[in-house]
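Tutorial handout. Part one gives the primary structure; part two gives the three-dimensional structure as tokens.
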Amino acid sequence: MLILSHGDVRRILDGAEHDVLAAVRSAYVLHAQGRTAVPHSVFLRFPGDERNRIIALPAYLDSPEAAVAGVKWVSSFPGNVNSALDRASAAIILNSMRTGHPEVFLEGATISARRTAASAAVAAATLGTGGSGVTLIGCGVINFEVLAFLRAVDAGLDSVTLFDLDQDRAAAFAVKCAARWPEVKIDVATRVEDALAAHPLVSLATSATVPHLDGSHCRPGTLILHLSLRDLTPETILSGVNIVDDADHVCRAATSPHLAEQQVGHRDFIAHSLGELLLAGGEYERSAEALTVFSPFGLGVLDLAVADLVHRRARELGLGVRVPDFLGNVSG
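Part two.
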């Protein structure tokens, strides 16, 4: 068993945005081609606790380099931020496709955040950013990574508007962004309505558990990267052009698309999957009037793709701690 820590993962992924983007894009295409197995995620919730959860995402990816199977075990405890801890933590296990034995144990929160951000950036590059600015609603780890990956696909993105219910958090986030990208103009909005109206590209990465936003304050034709999945009202979903990663996965667990499906009794409001658009190629013509909403459930194959990238680079660099007797007398 090879164990790769947070430091190992960061050493490999820092500055490797284009490699991560390529891995995530390839995983979406392979999924559209039917070269994946992605069982439904399992949600572990706790009696009397509506906020905290732990999710298991098992998956198989028929990668061109080598097939890979494994699982991500990721927790979300929003109250952590009040104790100066990260909201999310995760571990990923990769299994041998020859024996089924667990081979690699990786710190997964960094991988999870960057594959999420990369999926948002791939969607924005495919669907069109519509300008040189972005609004980030929710000033946490995910949206910081979203900004990094958006700038990796569009170096001309030079204006950012921030909003968070915690204004101190938004101010601290602005300082962090300015330190990394001093050339970027950063504004902090005091009202979510002003933030939504600021740019034709909006990224939602909050800890919301029920819909609380509609699209009435967005510019016509805005692209919303609906990463946290439960921010937008069902009516907003139904009135927009909806792109998902996988309809079966995203229409469950009380996501906004799931609530929309329950309201109308069908999924006809979903126009495309991102993988289908990538596989088809060509330039996507986004509506100039209706909102376009990208709602990615977050497929486990994305975690596998990035974890496999980390594993292969770690072996090349000799990183990690090997525990040869993890499985007793079984070598490896």
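Part three, for discussion. Residues 109-127 form the longest helix (19 residues). The radius of gyration is 19 Å.
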